[in-house]
Amino acid sequence: MAKLYFRYGAMNSGKSTALLQAAYNYEERGQHVLLAKPLIDTKGASQIESRLGMTREVDFLIGGDDDARALFRQERERKRRDAGASLLPEEPADVACLLVDEAQFLSEAQIDDLFRIAVEDGIPVLAYGIRNDFRTHAFPGSARLLAIAHTLEELKTICRCGRKAVFNGRRIGGRFVFDGDQVAIDGGGDELVTTYESLCGNCYLEESGGRLG
């Protein structure tokens, strides 16, 4: 049985790099993959970008109200047609894996779609994302993945102090903030530039004045 995998980590833990590497590994062996990400993730537009400078166009974007499984099936058929016949003409080349970046931005229903793609459609799904927002609250998509994914894999990174980073601190104009909308993509102009920093528990509490959530 194919599985739904959730590979998670704090910001800057190499999630997008790992996804692109996984896609490369499949394709190096002559297999076909589909890449997707949520439409709300405007960073990189329709591309997946890694901190190492690698980029790749996704096969489809998932809007807030979209049926992720329907989009997958549509793109799967397109990929099958584009790939042409395999060694056995009656068995056209199929998709070997679906890779999803920034999965925390998907809805609970869309995570359920990913589960059904793995279990009912028989295609492994590798979902990459972060667990918690800058206030230490779980994203709905991540919470659902933690609940139903067959396999959980943590991608580790370190805090500025050298400890393991588990939280994501938000900076606006260079200053840490602990209030605001759950979703704010990196970017902005002048004094409103939004960035993120991976923090351990000690450093997060130090910056927040002891506030947790």
Automatic annotation (TrEMBL):
Pfam families recorded: TK
UniProt superkingdom: Bacteria
Coiled-coil stretches noted in the UniProt entry, renumbered to this chain: none
Keyword flag Magnesium: no
Keyword terms, alphabetized: ATP-binding, Cytoplasm, DNA synthesis, Kinase, Metal-binding, Nucleotide-binding, Transferase, Zinc
Subcellular location as annotated: Cytoplasm
An example Gene Ontology molecular-function term: thymidine kinase activity
Catalytic center residues: E102
EC number, as in UniProt: 2.7.1.21
Entry-linked InterPro entries: P-loop_NTPase (IPR027417), Thymidine_kinase (IPR001267)
Catalytic activity: thymidine + ATP = dTMP + ADP + H(+)
Ligand binding (ATP): G9, A10, M11, N12, S13, G14, K15, S16, D101, E102, A103, Q104
Binding of Zn(2+), residues: C159, C161, C200, C203
Subunit structure: Homotetramer.
UniProt cross-references to NCBIfam families, sorted A to Z: PRK04296.1-5
Family per similarity comment: Belongs to the thymidine kinase family.
This protein's name: Thymidine kinase
